[in-house]
Amino acid sequence: MTAPAPTKPRSWRERVPAVLVLEDGRTFRGEAYGAIGETFGEAVFNTGMSGYQETLTDPSYHRQVVVMTAPQIGNTGWNDEDDESKQIWVAGYVVRDPARVASNWRAKRSLDEELADQGVVGISGIDTRALTRHLRERGAMRVGIFSGERLAEPAELLARVQQAPEMKGADLCAEVATTETYVVPAIGAKKFTVAAVDLGIKGMTPHRMAERGIEVHVLPANATAEDIYAVNPDGVFFSNGPGDPATADHQVAVLREVLGRGTPFFGICFGNQILGRALGFGTYKLKYGHRGINQPVQDRTTGKVEVTAHNHGFAVEAPLDKVSDTPFGRAEVSHVCLNDDVVEGLQCLDTPAFSVQYHPEAAAGPHDAAYLFDRFAQLMEGQRA
Ligand SMILES: NC(=O)CC[C@H](N)C(=O)O
Which family does the record assign (predicted)? Predict the structure, then answer.
């Protein structure tokens, strides 16, 4: 068997000018990477040194232009196994120095080719450190990437960026979630049935549950309490997802019914924000968010610190220093980010429900938080006894 020839990224074959324009007018010039054309979104940065395939296919990045802080991206190409969903969701992709050759035994093509095939416009060769520092100082903001031989005048490009929709107030889950219910079977003996509401679910999440003997019924984002109870679940799960949690009124109402019935509940990321809102806490937009696979979080129930994968631009506003009274009994902040004290998890004390703002499914990322899936299984076990 002969090894496939290394693939050459487009930027190596032909150099096409590209420009990135932020809504405050700051501009970076580089070269087209991936598809040639134009795109708009919210500029955010991701600090992961690896895991770009999982990042690009995470539906929570819908309508975001992701800037990679790691300088070299694309080294391991693109494979047929690591996608977290059916397509790339980022609105655009920004890298400094694209790998000139994809080299990995699983690689089927280069990252550049995959971006181009899926029509994802990117830019390379720009100072991503300067761009990241700008976003840290000024906050996440709208951005446009434009590539091609003839680009419009800067003032015209800027005007178009300023007309693009904002992330605050964006209701996006239904644009990425499944429209049909499907079942992920338990691996080995089946112990529990879970109704998982898909708000933009990553493929690894039902897999992590299946590994623990859970049969996962993945339901569309607009599922009702009736749909959930039709699968006769031992537990209910709400997934990660794109957009502003303040728009998720339907899901908040559904979750209140679930909490009222005392069914065990676990939420991840958007699911954590929905639990927060269902309990009566607010959510707010962070200045520039947490995105990466090296964020320190403390589990305040054990005191342990874990290194975790994050992708969130909003957060729950809840008191860190006291137990709160909610319509579903007492609740407390169970996890906190040690970088900035942002709420990273909620625990109900009188109702079998908890959630985390980060990604225990770890795709990509360290496996420190895998115990949370065990906690969910124990919670379901406890409710049965
Ligand atoms: N990964 C997620 O679920 C993100 C939740 C939400 N869209 C946020 O940005 O905070």
Answer: Belongs to the CarA family.
